[in-house]
Design goal:
Elements (H helix, E strand, L loop, with lengths): L6 H20 L2 H26 L6 H13 L6 H17 L1 E2 L2 E2 L3 H12 L12 H14 L3 H21 L13 H7 L10 H20 L6 H31 L1
Antiparallel strand pairs: 1-2
Helix pairs in contact: 1-2, 1-3, 1-6, 2-3, 2-4, 3-4, 3-5, 4-5, 5-10, 6-8, 7-9, 9-10
Length: 256
């Protein structure tokens, strides 16, 4: 494992400590066991794939993060085999669904969503509304990964969309904060390799997430709208990058 300065190492430590906090608060040892089990599954699965490719068994921090996230999001009522399925889908997607030598989808998001659609898994987003812990640390991770624009545009547009809906239903604006899944925003959305890297693309990414979640929620979708919206925007990243590059090229030509 890399030094403590590594953002991946810091995220792993946070996820472990946060899980322990939740266990102490909720007295839910099953959740902690599932997180550990899920991380082990992911670590072994990715290690096996890398060994098959290079004949060297490597332990990847990203696999631990993927496994822990699945442990947080997938329901604790799911059996061990369902955590194995979700992790297999997540790690497998990194090496099968690729574009320009990069994986397209957030691994944990892909594994969880596909497992809920085809294998009757359920999500529970453990600890996602413990805002007083997730937000401060989440802002730090967002800053380190340079994803402030994504989070900012997503939160602002979500506030406007759900705020309009809330007011039209004669409810308090305070209810809006109940629509925001903080673990989703500050842990999953900011995944660096599957979200936009240029400024314009980051804003579009955040705006797109907010719109899709609002629309699917309004339509009463029976799947996890946050995960599905994230996968849609993950898939759009290559296109967004091409659009931004063309725009930059046009601007450069006009300046000449």
């Amino acid at each position: 494992m890399n030094s403590f300065k590594s953002i991946k190492t810091q995220l792993i430590i946070f996820l472990i400590i946060f899980a322990i906090f939740i266990v102490v608060r909720d007295k839910d040892l099953i959740f902690l066991f599932n997180c550990f089990l899920s991380a082990v599954f992911a670590l072994i699965l990715e290690g096996a794939i890398l060994y098959f490719k290079s004949k060297m068994f490597k332990l990847k921090e990203s696999a631990i993060i993927t496994g822990l996230i699945i442990g947080y999001v997938l329901s604790s009522d799911s059996g061990m085999e369902r955590f194995l399925i979700a992790n297999t889908l997540a790690i497998g997607s990194k090496y099968i669904i690729r574009f320009h030598k990069r994986h397209i989808f957030n691994p944990a998001g892909f594994g969880i969503f596909i497992s809920t659609v085809f294998f009757n898994n359920f999500t529970h987003w453990k600890g996602t509304y413990i805002w007083y812990i997730i937000i401060p640390l989440g802002i730090y991770f967002t800053y380190r990964l340079r994803k402030i624009e994504i989070v900012f545009s997503y939160i602002i547009l979500s506030f406007l969309l759900f705020g309009w809906q809330t007011l039209s239903q004669n409810r308090s604006l305070e209810d809006i904060w109940g629509y925001l899944s903080y673990f989703y925003i500050f842990i999953m959305v900011i995944e660096p390799k599957t979200s936009s890297i240029d400024i314009i693309g980051k804003y579009i990414f955040g705006i797109g997430l907010a719109i899709f979640i609002f629309v699917f929620t309004g339509l009463g979708a029976r799947f996890d709208v946050e995960l599905f919206s994230l996968l849609i925007m993950n898939a759009s990243v290559p296109l967004l990058s091409r659009i931004v590059l063309k725009s930059d090229a046009v601007i450069c030509q006009e300046k000449k």
